User: Fold this.
Amino acid sequence: GAGVSQSPSNKVTEKGKDVELRCDPISGHTALYWYRQRLGQGLEFLIYFQGNSAPDKSGLPSDRFSAERTGESVSTLTIQRTQQEDSAVYLCASSFQVNEQFFGPGTRLTVL
Amino acid sequence: RKEVEQDPGPFNVPEGATVAFNCTYSNSASQSFFWYRQDCRKEPKLLMSVYSSGNEDGRFTAQLNRASQYISLLIRDSKLSDSATYLCVVIRGTGRRALTFGSGTRLQVQP
Assistant:
């Protein structure tokens, strides 16, 4: 079946612009995670959605970052007033069983 | 101190060699442990879970040492296709069910 998909695959934007990244999780997966991975670095947790519970936003680096999820479907990660340090690959993952996460291919964001 | 620490490597080994990676974690409440594999410019994929009794999957063996708070991954008979970054992953026992990733250990298997 279909895996986790993300769009766009690449995004180049100018400093100060807003961007919106999309994640389509695997159907039936109740949990959805957003991570950021800078070049040569490990994964950095951003936000976690579990069913209808309040999301865990403890990893969001600043108030310029926000994310939404409608039910157990699509999620969008929005970065306002982008800065050059926001350049990274943004990875989305979903899971049904809490122990295994399936990752999307990521969105490579470049802020000029 | 980072919650999950790994030697970044790279580990350069010849084909057929046996190689082992360790990963230490600082939160004693951690309950679940995994190894993920990430190929260059690709997303991470689950390689194997790590169980207290140790577990094996083909050429790969994972071990957990709770007393010393580390997990290990042993790869026997290395293949060129094993070249990748291996990420140690820990789930905290309580609170948010988010994985904490190590920065990864890069393995390069050479012909």
